[in-house]
Fold:
Amino acid sequence: MAPGDNSLYANHTPVGVALPAATLMSCCVELFGMLRLNGNLLSIDVGDRSADGVAIDDELSAFIGGRGVATKLAHDRIPFDADPFGPENRVYLSTGPLQTSRMSFTGRMNATTLSPLTDGLLSTNAGGFLSRHFSGVGHPCVEIRGASDELVVVHVRGDEDGDPEVRFEPVPELAGATVKETSAVMEERHGIGGEHLVTIGPGGENQVRYASLMTSNSRAFGRGGVGAVLGSKNVKAISFDGEATLDVSGLDEEAAAAIHRDAATTDHIMKRQGTTGGIDVKNELFSLPTRYFERMDFDEGVEGINGDAVESKKYERGTCSLCAFACKLPTRDEETGIETEGPEYETVFAFGSTLLIDDIVDVMQSNELCDEYGLDTISTGVTIGAYLQAEDRFGDVDLVHELVDRIAHREGVGDLLAEGVDRIHEELGVTNWTSKGLEFPGHDGRVLHGRGLGYATANRGADHMYSKIHNLEYDGEIPQEGLDGKATLVADLEDLKAVNDSAVVCKFSRSFMTEERYETLFGADYDRLLSIGSRVVTLERHFNNRRGFDRADDSLPFTLEGFEEALDEYYDHRGWTREGTVPEEALTVQ
Ligand code: SF4
Structure:
């Protein structure tokens, strides 16, 4: 079938039909003025194979797009007592207003669901080349609900008028297929390759709790298991394509062009080494977790896995849609033939220093296995680290690669490890290196104290992208030690990152996005933008509260002086209770 050929689209329910008012969200207060995305939610039920359009004007008005809108929809439409693997759970894929621009840092999009790993709300975003194809469907947000009784690929197309067509293709023959194998089959059958797809691998099909949803073959919607949720719905992949144009108003093209120009012309180490450029510095600062967090430096092996080692294997520049910053890392080892995209810093930490592996080619192979199987590299590496500690097998690279395979297929001990560290640490007899059930990333909170606090407060769990306060601690903008004044800073940065995720702007744009540029680009006062981000974070928290999360979950497996006082300060700043819960009255402005 040729792309855009809608004639084969069976089971099509015309969209654009609003649901009864009772099913819509409560009215939101419009805080957002100029930059504005319009359109309907496309809600797809993979159980009864239907599709409906749902008006979401209020949500788009109040939450921009991307993570903000998806959070509001998930909060209101996923039952608070839902089983993450039940048909009542939903997956939201969403874009922001900037995906209609030609600005760098906009080649990303958002996914939101109830996480089977943390049991709380999960928003995650991925780069690659899907965002523009997704926009071509003509809907800012697509919801997947229900569960199919057989493995399917869902094809979503949009025409020039913005009318989508939805088709369900049974694919029992793709059971167990890797991400690339699935892309190849879709390319051959429909002329639609990985750049049009979100795909799960065996990890998602087998409901590994930290299975990623993959796009463009190697880009992951990681952390927290959105791939496993699609697996529970028997959805192998979703393809997006079309000619529709998203309706966006108020985009300041000049501001977008200035940012794009700077991204293209500025010299930056990320253009050569991606996120791996600072590994040596992290090692010197003792913020490179090593040997399953027993140590904080990897002096004896860091040279083999540092940014120079990664760059020595890089064979071309890599990027996401329209991004001139181009920080991605296509790498190849000529001797072994191992080829992958990455590894990024977090994968080097998780499959290198954490496991005492000092050869970048071995890390590249782990990275590629995780991409093929659709597994989050941080959680997979850290969980394997827990097992290696229990078995005293650090540095055994053959075992590591075997374990990745076993986890993806839930074979033998892989079935246990597929549950993640939080659920198995007692059985293994190791420290629980998670917060809210999410495995820790590679910026050590025992050294970077603001980073530690941010791991504890993040609604997604131990998440380095949620506030990114470690950047200020690395750069010396704030001290690494102590928590004085950091509670409010963590909260404000969380809010800002929620704005980024809603727009959707890649967080690697930090040095290009001044306050003034935020205001010009969005046509809104900076504080007003932060207040939108704050409402996103508060909605996530409220959802999690209703699932039983409270202060006790904002915890760390290590102590920080002044931590409890900082938590109080953080809650006070947000207007939450000292128990870490959102007062119901705070929701009247949500
Ligand atoms: S900065 Fe890097 S990750 Fe972000 S959009 Fe550009 S290429 Fe993608």
Remarks:
- The chain is about 35% helix and 15% strand.
